[in-house]
Hints:
alpha/beta; four-stranded antiparallel beta sheet; 39% helix; 24% strand
Amino acid sequence: MEAPTKIEIRNLYKIFGPDPRRALEALRNEGLGKPELLEKHNHVLGLEDINVDVKAGKITVIMGLSGSGKSTLIRHVNRLIDPTAGEIIFDGSDILKCSTEELRRIRREQMSMVFQKFALLPHKTIAENAALALDVRGIPRAEHIPAAEKWLDRVGLQGYGDSYPHQLSGGMQQRVGIARALTSNADIMLMDEAYSALDPLIRTDMQDLLLELQQELQKTILFITHDLDEALKLADHLVILKDGRVIQQDEPQTILLEPSDPYIVDFISDINRARVLRVRTVMEKTDATDGVNIAGEIDQEENLESVIAMAQGDTRKTYLVKDGSEEVGILRMEALIKSLVPTEASEDGIRSQ
């Protein structure tokens, strides 16, 4: 069953400049793009007609290069930025119509944010930083510090509660940011380039930690990144932006197999497809296994890299695919190998940007 929608972003526009309403009218009537709007009307197009559903309990990743509008978009969700036009429906109500008090309550209790630059208060201990949301709500220290220490333990920072931010490495400080978001007990986590300042190995550890926590907690996460490998690893639903527009959105496996634009084709041309694609995307949905020599059983959520290792590269093998205890199809290694052939990179795609 499909997860319910937690946040609906509908027909969202953001234009920066002295008269955004007039620029929006020109954008719609003249069919201008981002460069033309700047050249003709001296306004910057931040977002153009964005429509995205953020599903409850899932990780939605917004991905794009610098200037694509991804950080502008996430700042609309908790109204750090107000749009030029559009709606953001949160739990059935338009957050853009909230009063100041309602908005303050949503930010304090229902949405947490993990920043790229950690945003820890240097004069407070690690436990005090992690407990900040509860402290702001007026929850007594005797309650909020133990709650923070529980989540610090959970993200691998046991015993660091009395330390200060300057005593921790960058990766450890980002773990504090995640612990702070979890201590707040908010339904929604907004993560704006949360790992981009980290070294590659630490970044991988943090991605793994997020996936481990998400499997347990099922938070609604909106994650911003410019890194395609990170996006493909984390996303249940991937939204790719360019010049303030959505170029394609779908689950990562579908985008890899069915890119809808030369820009996307160029993006994915060098990706390790075996690490991203899952068995369910390339299996044959059938219950007819009579006469088929089955080499073993695999789960439909396994990635193809693990199946290749299991088959030891033997393209003659066929596996029975299961969803839990239910048989859902078969996977022929020949079909798997064909799915790994990348779509040819475009001549005028991202590399020419």
